[in-house]
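4.2 Preliminary Data

To establish feasibility before requesting continued support, the project team ran the inverse folding procedure on a target of 369 residues. The structure was first converted into the token representation described in Section 3, and no sequence information of any kind was made available to the design step. The complete token record follows.
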């Protein structure tokens, strides 16, 4: 079940001449059947334009889009069998919930009892069957969002498209609905393409993520792959917080990779190789990405630690974020779980000398782009 989406060399240019703007630039990707696939990126990166080309609302300048091998590049939206959930929900205020959900079935001339059965099934999938006779104005924002999802699901689309459906909701409701939407999409087996600029939505919901910038894919993979193994500075900084450190590589006698900064040495990832298969030379300083949670505060004298000075601490409840000055690199952010709890080994105050450990297995060498 589910539809494979194949996109090849897709281009969309708005305007012409000096006013021409390329929103999507030679983009190619394959979305597998039944996959919950996220298009993630900053405003203006081309993700919504790409989604609307998949839906058929925007005609590409060049390139192709295929559903299960069938070319739909220039096919009208109503011929593609896609369901769309908009940011604004777009519910009819004069209709009941059930009537809103049934709208697509009426257009397709589905008759009772099948119509009523499919409406009930869709409402049950989003846990809204008890609200069938209410009007949208009698619902909360989260309930309206679920009705919009049911309306898209009831037509049994080949592809479900969601355009930032949670952006109008408060933080707690967004968090609750993330799990519901993922459960519904995976239970239905429908191929789903979801646009967002919210990294937490993508990390918590997606099977795979394509991170876009300037109409191009910067990296594609599972949430874990993108977060733990970013390939560039842009990916590392966009997905969560990170510390970027330029360090001198050192090859020890036993070939264990170490890196040198002014404060001292620390173990790190294996050295990158050049085109001839030789280790990176000593006069080069690769860029390392070190996540805040990959750094630990330690006691003085412990092995593999670097000295520093605590600049400030921000208490965030389950975590605390420390900002530490370490010679030879920008101030380093450190995330401490269960801060100041019974298991905390160190309780520094701003201005105190501290010792930190970089966890070698969580350090990633990246491209500076």
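Position-by-position output of the design step:
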């Amino acid at each position: 079940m589910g539809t494979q989406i194949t996109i090849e060399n897709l281009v969309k240019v708005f305007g012409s001449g000096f006013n021409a703007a390329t929103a999507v630039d030679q983009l190619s990707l394959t979305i597998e059947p039944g996959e919950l696939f996220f298009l993630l990126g900053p405003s203006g990166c081309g993700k919504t334009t790409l989604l609307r080309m998949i839906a058929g609302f925007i005609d590409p300048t060049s390139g192709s889009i295929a559903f299960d091998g069938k070319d739909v590049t220039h096919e009208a939206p109503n011929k593609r069998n896609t369901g769309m959930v908009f940011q604004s929900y777009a519910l009819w205020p004069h209709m009941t919930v059930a009537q809103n959900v049934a709208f697509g079935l009426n257009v397709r001339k589905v008759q009772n009892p099948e119509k009523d059965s499919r409406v009930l099934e869709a409402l049950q999938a989003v846990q809204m069957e008890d609200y069938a006779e209410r009007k949208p104005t009698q619902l909360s924002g989260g309930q309206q969002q679920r009705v919009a999802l049911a309306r898209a699901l009831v037509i049994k689309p080949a592809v479900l498209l969601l355009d930032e459906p949670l952006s109008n909701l408060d933080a707690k409701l967004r968090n609750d609905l993330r799990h519901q939407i993922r459960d519904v999409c995976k239970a239905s087996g429908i191929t789903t393409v979801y646009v967002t600029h919210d990294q937490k939505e993508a990390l918590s919901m997606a099977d795979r993520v394509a991170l876009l910038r300037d109409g191009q894919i910067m990296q594609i993979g599972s949430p874990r792959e993108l977060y733990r193994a970013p390939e560039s500075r842009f990916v590392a900084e966009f997905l969560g917080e990170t510390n970027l450190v330029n360090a001198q590589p050192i090859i020890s006698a036993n070939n264990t990779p170490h890196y040198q900064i002014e404060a001292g040495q620390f173990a790190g990832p294996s050295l990158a190789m050049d085109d001839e298969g030789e280790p990176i030379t000593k006069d080069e300083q690769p860029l390392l990405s070190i996540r805040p949670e990959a750094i630990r505060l330690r006691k003085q004298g412990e092995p593999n630690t670097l000295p520093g000075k605590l600049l400030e601490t921000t208490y965030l409840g389950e975590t605390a974020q420390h900002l530490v000055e370490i010679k030879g690199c920008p101030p380093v952010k450190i995330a401490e779980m269960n801060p100041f709890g019974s298991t905390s080994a160190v309780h520094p105050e701003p201005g105190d000398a501290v010792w930190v450990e970089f966890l070698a297995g969580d350090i990633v060498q990246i491209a500076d782009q």
